[in-house]
Amino acid sequence: MRRIAERVVWRLSRIIAERSGRVRASQDPESAPSAHPDGNPFLAARTEFMNAFGDLARGKRNWQLIAYALAGLLALVAIADLRLAASSRVVPYIVQVDRLGQVVTVGPADDLQRPDQRLVASELARFIRAIRTVLPAAAGQAEMLRRAYAFVASDAAAFLNDYFGNPVNDPRLLGLRLTRQVDVTGVLRVPNSDVWRLQWTETERSTQPGGLTRTVAWEGYVTVRLVPPRTVDAVQDNPLGLAVTSVNWTQVGASVSTMPVGADTTLDQGVKP
Q: Quick one: 117-257 is in which CATH superfamily?
């Protein structure tokens, strides 16, 4: 048994010598010295084994740790690249030119800021005048509705489509027998909200022979939000990007009619969504 252990020690010593480039001069197993000071061949074999493969195991572990660290770093760099690629790097600029096409002013386009309330009130007044006015000319009426719908979001558009779908409220049919002039008397914002209260009067003049006029007071509430215009037509028709998301109006006060008795007084009645 002792002899077998000595052979194992000798072979391990030979392997270590070959790996380090050293070749022992003697090939006799009997000449292999004991590698352990106690002379125990098993402890000597263990020592030789640890010397031969311990450094390899530690080196492997170190390279594994380095590989894991590099993989984590690569993942962080990949995530940063993806976020950088997804973010917008385009800075829009506004260029003002004169009549000859020469550049006058160049500057970066700022983000859409919330406009002054007076501007919003003015645009809402324009919206009410456009949506409630009735003209006798079909082309003029279509243009008024187009300007009004430039302020309307999809939710409010559905309500207005249903409202004008009623023949009693259809401005194209009303234009065959009357005209309507809208005068806005008040536009106030409800505090701490996006709801605005509007008040206006409508003067309806009959185009039928013998017909006179009547004046009706109205009140309405609209909810608005800002949507940046993205087309040339939107910039021209709605430069503030004001979008009406809901609308509700009703007739207030008694109408004063100067129509003769027996005349048709079936005009536009109030509606609530």
A: VirB8 protein (3.10.450.230)
Nearest-CA neighbor of 245 among 130, 150, 151, 121? 151
Cα(76)–Cα(50) distance, integer angstroms: 38
Condensed to tens digits (0 to 9), the pLDDT of residues 33-52 reads 444 555 667 677 777 777 76
- Whether this prediction's pTM lies above 0.70 is answered by no
> Hey, what's the torsion of the CAs at 7, 8, 12, 15, to 10 degrees?
60
**For residues 9 and 190, what is the distance between their CA atoms, to the nearest angstrom?**
96
- Residue 107 token pair: 């500057």
The DSSP 8-state label assigned to residue 234 in this structure reads H
Question: What's the pLDDT at 132?
Answer: 93
- The amino acid present at 259, given as its one-letter code, is M
Query: In the chain, pLDDT over 70 holds for what percent of residues?
Result: 72
Are the beta carbons of 93 and 108 closer than 8 angstroms?
A: yes
- Over residues 97-113, the pLDDT tens digits come to 888 888 877 777 666 56
Sign of the dihedral through C-alpha 8, 11, 13, 15: negative
What are the residue ranges of CATH 3.10.450.230 in the chain? 117-257
